[in-house]
Amino acid sequence: GEDVEQSLFLSVREGDSSVINCTYTDSSSTYLYWYKQEPGAGLQLLTYIFSNMDMKQDQRLTVLLNKKDKHLSLRIADTQTGDSAIYFCAESNLGTGFQKLVFGTGTRLLVSP
Amino acid sequence: GAVVSQHPSWVICKSGTSVKIECRSLDFQATTMFWYRQFPKQSLMLMATSNEGSKATYEQGVEKDKFLINHASLTLSTLTVTSAHPEDSSFYICSSNGAHYGYTFGSGTRLTVV
Question: Which residues of chain A have pLDDT under 50?
Answer without folding.
Answer: none
